[in-house]
Amino acid sequence: MGNSFDILKKRIMQDGKCYEGGILKVDSFINHQLDPDLMYEIGHEFSKRFAGSGVNKIMTIEASGIAPAIMMGHEMHLPVVFAKKKKPKTMSSMLTTTVHSFTKDRDYTVCISADFLSPDDRIVVIDDFMAYGNASRGLIDLASQAGARIVGFGFIIEKVFQHGGDQLRNDGYRVESLARVLSLDNCQITLE
């Protein structure tokens, strides 16, 4: 299928929609209706980028990060754990944090079972978007509560102009973004 960057950039330009307020809608192929071939390529690319990093677990937050995380987990033969936005009745020992959603403009209490994160875990966090970094900060908090170490972050799309990725990099985290959106000014998508 070629280089996943090119495939992804082409799909963003072809099928992505821009809305006022810095919103990029990619729900026809990434986060509502999924393109399995594209998700496979994304998982493969993240696997290549994080090969040799010592990762032993992949973490994401529901819902849109699950598909690329699963594809990477399949490629690397690693378990995938995801933070839930609602506490299941069956979860007893849990870690919790609060995350603000930029797109939905609301706070979520997210949780993850303490049974699935440990100090032995070296985690790569995978998600669909990097905007302001709110979800990433929540996942950093959950990993920290468990004593796990985050070795890197992988984002399908980073909205560079919202600076969340820069903040993670400044804090010493490795950040890999498959497509970087420089601007959505005047509802024009400008990619790096």
Automatic annotation (TrEMBL):
The keyword ATP-binding does not apply. It comes from the Bacteria. One of its GO terms (biological process) is purine ribonucleoside salvage. GO terms for cellular component: cytoplasm. Its EC number is 2.4.2.22. It is found in: Cytoplasm. It comes from Sodaliphilus pleomorphus. This is Xanthine phosphoribosyltransferase. Keywords: Cytoplasm, Glycosyltransferase, Purine salvage, Transferase. NCBIfam families: PRK09219.1 (NF006671), XPRTase (TIGR01744). Converts the preformed base xanthine, a product of nucleic acid breakdown, to xanthosine 5'-monophosphate (XMP), so it can be reused for RNA or DNA synthesis. The keyword Cytoplasm applies.
